[in-house]
Amino acid sequence: MLSHRQGWSLALVTSLFPCVFITGSANDAPVTTYHSSASEVSVTFFATDQNNQLIDTVVNDDFAVVDGGMVIRDFRSLIRSNETALDVVAVVDASESVAPRFHTTMHDVLQLVSERPLASDDNISVVSFNGLRPVLLCTRDCRSPAAGQRLLAVKAAGPTPLFDALVYAANFSSNRRVPGVRRVLILFSDGADTISMTSAHDAVKAIIASGALLYTVDLNESADASSGSIVLQRMADATGGRSFSARDGSLNVLQAALADLRASYVVTYPLPSHAAGFHSLRILPQHNLNLRFHCRSGYYYEDRIP
Amino acid sequence: MKTVSRSTRYMKHFFGLNFFGLIFLGLIFLGLILAVCSVPAAWAGPFGVYQHGTVVRMRVGECTLSHRGFMVAFGSPAGQMPEEVCPEYTLVSDKVVYVIVGRSSNQLIPLADVIDFRLHNNELAVRVDDAKHEAKFSIKEMILRSEWDLVQKHITDQLNTPPHATDSAMAMRNGN
Predict the structure, then answer these.
(1) E runs forming strands in chain A
(2) Can you spell out the DSSP letters for A236-289?
């Protein structure tokens, strides 16, 4: 999914470059300030039906975008997403609350890591969290034997800094931006935070700002929706990702993320409001209420550079 | 007349009816035809009175007009159960603009260009596209379309006014 903040920053930097050049070459000339603002919103999304099956073809008439409360039906463009590969950060809950099934979880993570690359540019990193801070277990070399041993050496104990770990993973992922590569966080957790400095809201905000999608694997044993399960689901929905149960299998989650990638569209439309700050975002059906459109829950707009 | 009398004879022959009996039978038949015709008319009654409108805004807010519930959300402080949120739509019709609120968080309106709706028992019933059922919404606000247009124009003008123009106007007013 594209990062609006990044896109606008790029546009702003591009537009400000001549300004820097002019002021640098003529010190006596009056300082000229160029203002620039974004005029287009770009949203990446995919659609599923009532059975959670991906919809392969979406047309303009299928959906409307609700941007900051305003219903938008006239789009500038609707095209397939050009993202072709995944950059996955597996975020693994290693706290005491998930200890009973931690061995199985790590087995799933190892299976995820050892899976053949889905595309040439696919990459995977693993972060675990318990105690006070998250730990980066491996990156880029996660398929090596040494990294495998590090993963198996992790023990489940201590409190759960879930939201802090998500902020850490979002920042980590944000530094790995590559054009054409979708960044995905796969969270293995029961959704119960016990010690984070940050809130769930801030964690979601960080993920949205990073441009990554959150896929959650619910480690709760019960089939009933616990508060942790609901938190996981809501966080995934807010970032445009999806939530799964541990029973679905980690490889299926990865396959789902890849399938979502292939079924993604990008819709663009004129910026409806220049109000600075967070703009909420939803995509809703125009006709068939069984369709569900997955996109991030909003974007940040910075009006001008002073 | 000869034909009528022949048919009368046939009717007498088959049904044992006299002239008045035939008149009575004819009235019953006419009544049946009228009844059959009126059934679809009555069925189509609600559909015939639908008004048309367009949803221009949508937000989620408290379900103040319907029931109150709870749902765990991640945006609240730990330990608090926030209220359930319901969709709120601004529906613009020819004469009136309605602000309507759904009864639950998942009560959605298809956001097509034009939707059909009708007022029913202080509620607004929206026909869900081509489906056979309606979704009923509480009416939160009603405003005449002409007034709403004026308010929207005022808001648009305010948004399009550059901030520095407002500042200079204020400066002139203050005599600076």
Answers:
(1) 40-48, 54-55, 63-67, 70-72, 77-80, 85-93, 123-130, 133-139, 181-189, 213-218, 243-245, 265-270, 277-285, 292-294, 298-301
(2) HHHHT--EEEGGG-HHHHHHHHHHHHHT-EEEEEE-S---SEEEEEEEEESS-T
In order along its 306 residues, chain A shows pLDDT tens digits of: 444 444 444 333 333 333 333 333 444 555 566 666 668 999 999 999 989 899 999 999 999 999 999 999 999 999 999 888 889 999 999 999 999 989 989 988 888 888 765 555 568 899 999 988 899 999 888 888 898 888 989 999 999 999 999 999 999 999 988 888 999 999 999 999 999 999 999 999 999 999 999 999 999 987 666 889 999 999 999 999 999 988 887 778 888 888 998 899 999 999 998 888 899 999 999 999 899 999 999 998 886 554
Q: Within 13 Å and on the Cβ side, how many CA atoms surround A261?
A: 25
Query: Which of chain B's residues have a Cβ under 8 Å away from the Cβ of A287?
Result: 110, 112, 129-130
Q: Are residues A126 and A239 in the same domain?
A: yes
Chain B nearest-CA distance from A203, in A, is: 10
Rg (CA), chain B: 30
B112 in A contact zone (CB under 8 Å): yes
User: A282 and B55: CB-CB below 8 Å?
Assistant: no
Domain count, chain A: 2
User: Could you tell me if A47 and A196 lie in one domain?
Assistant: no
Whether the CB-CB separation of A298 and A41 falls below 8 Å is answered with no
- Residue B136 and residue B116: Cα distance in Å, rounded? 12
Q: What is the ipTM of this complex?
A: 0.71
A254 and A273 share a domain? Answer: no
User: A160 lies in a domain?
Assistant: yes
A167, part of any domain: yes
Q: Which residue of A has its CA nearest to B135?
A: A289
CA torsion sign for A207, A208, A214, A218 is positive
Domain of residue A271, residue span: 4-81+264-301
Residues A110 and A230 in one domain: yes
Residues of A in contact with B77 (CB under 8 A): 199
Does pTM surpass 0.80? no
Tell me whether residue A306 is in a domain. Answer: no
Which ranges of chain B does DSSP label H, i.e. alpha helix? 2-15, 19-43, 45-48, 145-160, 163-173
